[in-house]
Amino acid sequence: MESMQRLKEFCQDVRADIVRMTSAAGSGHPGGSLSAVEAMTVLYFNVMNHRPQEPGWPERDRFFLSKGHACPVTYSVMARSGYFPVEELLTLRKCGTRLQGHPSCKTLPGIEVSSGSLGQGLSIANGFALSAKIDNKPYRAYCLMGDGELQEGQVWEAIMTAAHYKLDNVCAIVDYNGLQIDGDVESVMGIAPLAQKWTAFNWHVIEADGHNLEQMQAAYAEAAQTKGKPSVIIMKTIKGKGISFMENVAGWHGKAPNQQELQSALAEIYGKENGK
Amino acid sequence: MSIMMLPTRDGYGYGLLELGAANPDVLVLDADLAKSTRSDWFAAKYPERFFDIGISEQDMIGTAAGLALGGKIPFATTYGVFVAGRAWDQIRTTVCYSDLNVKIAGAHGGISAGGDGATHQALEDIALMRVLPNMKVLVPCDAIEAKKATVAAGTVLGPCFLRFAREATPVFTTEGDFFEIGIANILKPGTDATIIAAGPIVYEALLAHEQLAAEGISLRVINMHTIKPLDEAAVVAAARETGAIVTAEEAQLYGGLGGAVAEVLARKCPTPVEMVGIEDSFLECGTPEELAVKYGLTAKDLVRAVKKVLARK
Ligand SMILES: Cc1ncc(C[n+]2csc(CCOP(=O)(O)OP(=O)(O)O)c2C)c(N)n1
Ligand SMILES: [Mg+2]
Predict the structure, then answer these.
(1) Residues lining ligand 2 (ion), CB within 5 A?
(2) How high is the pLDDT of residue A204?
(3) What are the helix (H) ranges across chain A?
(4) Quick one: B145 and B32 in the same domain?
C-alpha cells in the first residue's frame, strides 16, 4: 500500500508521462487519459492484486480498458508499477512499438485484451468474472469506461448481464467527465440521470470525486465489500485534468501537445499541487 | 510539378454540401465523429438536417432506416471499421434486405488511420459490404471523385456504402472527368498487363505506369471506383486484351477488390492475377507512409507485381 502522499507524486508523474508520450507521438488521447489518472493510479498501486513482474500470473485481478483510447494513462501506470521500463513510454504509436495507439494484448504483456472499439469491455469483464465464479476464484474484474461510451447499446446489455448473474466480482468505473468528441455528452446524446439508471439496472452505485485519492480508495474498498451485486464507481472528473488549457476542452480529446504546450503542461504539473 | 493533396473525406464534405443545397430531403447522421468525417461541414450549414446519434452505430443505422422509410435520404456517417463492423447486422437485415435508401459513409478507410493502430484501420469494410445483396460499394480515388461519388450515391436509389480516407492524397482527376456508378474509368490504355485499383492507391498505379513505360511495358490502368456492382465487362476486356491482371487496394485481399476481380475472371476468362493489398493480417500503428512501405502498397510493389504476373502470362 502506498501512502496518499506517495500516490499524489505518482499522479504527477503519470500526468507528465501522458503529455510527454502523446507529444512525442504527435497524436494520441490526452484528455480522457488525464481524467482517469487518480482512478488508475489508486487501482494499480493500491487496489489490484497483481504482479507487474509476472503479468501472466493466473491469480491476478484483471483490468479491462474499455475506453481503449485512454491507453496513455494505462501504459503510464503499468510502467510506473513495473510492467516495463518507463523510457519505453516514449515509443507510443511509433512503427514497431509495443505501445500501440490502442492497446494490443498481442504486443504488450499486461494488456488483457485488445481494445479501441468502444462499448465492449464490460461484457468481457463479466465473462471473466463469471469464469472466476465457476472456478471459485477470488480474483476480480475492473473495467474503465467513458461516459460517452455509455451510449453504446452493448454497454447496457452488459449492465443487465452483470446484475442478472450477480457478478459482485465486477467493478465498473465510469469516467464521468461530461465530454466526448463532438462536445458535451448531454448535448450530443444525453445519458443522465446516470446513477439512477445503473441503480434501476440493479447495480450498487458508488459516486465519487474522481480526482480525490482518498475517495477513490474508499470507493474501490466499498465495491470489494459489496456482495450479491456488481458495483459501479461513477466518478466525477474533469477531462484534461491538471493542465489548465486542456481542462474541459473537447478538442483535447485526441490531439497531442506541441513542444511549447508540453513545456507549459509540465511546468503546471510539477509547479502546483495535483491529485486533489 | 507539385500536385494538390486533399483527403477523400473532404470530397465527402463537399459532396454533402452540394446535395444539401439541391435536395432538402438529404439528411446527415454521425456517431460522435463529425469533425473527423467532415459531416460537420453539413452540420454547420444545415443544422436542422444534421443529427448526432452519439457513440451508437447500430442505433444510427436503424434510425437512418426509419428516416428512409419516411422518404428522407439519410447519410449515416462514421469510421468504416465501426459502421461496417459494429452495425453489420442492422445494415444487412434492416437496410439491405428491405432495400432501403440509406447511404453509409465509412471514413478513415484502409491504412489512413495509421497511428490509431489495428482497431481503427478499416481493412475489412469492402468485403463486409460487398457480400450484401442490394448494396453498392464505392471507393473513390481522390477528393474530386469522392465528391462525385457522394453526389451520385445521393441521387441513385438504394443502399450505398462509400469509403473515404483520412490522409491527404494526390488529387489527379478533374471535375470534368466522367463518373458513373458501376462504370470503370480506364486511365491508361495499355496492352501488356492491367492494374485494376480502387481508392487513393490508384495514384500509385499511375506511378507504376510511368516506371513500366520507361522499361517498354505498356500498362493499362483501371480506376475501379465502384467495387459493386463491378464493371465486369471492363475486367474481362482487360483480361482478354492484356492477358495479365494486377489488383491493388488498401484492404484485405480476401473478399476485397482482388477477390471480386478473381471471382469474375475465374468464371468468365481465367487469366493470371496478382493481388496487392493486405494479406490476411491485422496491421499495427505507424504513419500511413510507413505502413504502405511495410505492407507493400507502394508503386514499387505494384511494379514488382506486374513483372510477376507478366512472367506467368
Ligand atoms: C465503437 C466506436 N465508435 C466510435 C469510436 C471513436 N471514438 C473514440 S473515443 C470517442 C469518444 C469517447 O468519449 P468518452 O467515452 O466520453 O471518453 P473520454 O471522455 O473518457 O475520453 C469516440 C467516439 C470508437 N473508438 N469506437
Ligand atoms: Mg467523456
Answers:
(1) A 146-148, 177, 179
(2) 98
(3) 4-25, 31-34, 37-42, 71-80, 121-134, 153-164, 185-189, 194-200, 213-225, 259-271
(4) yes
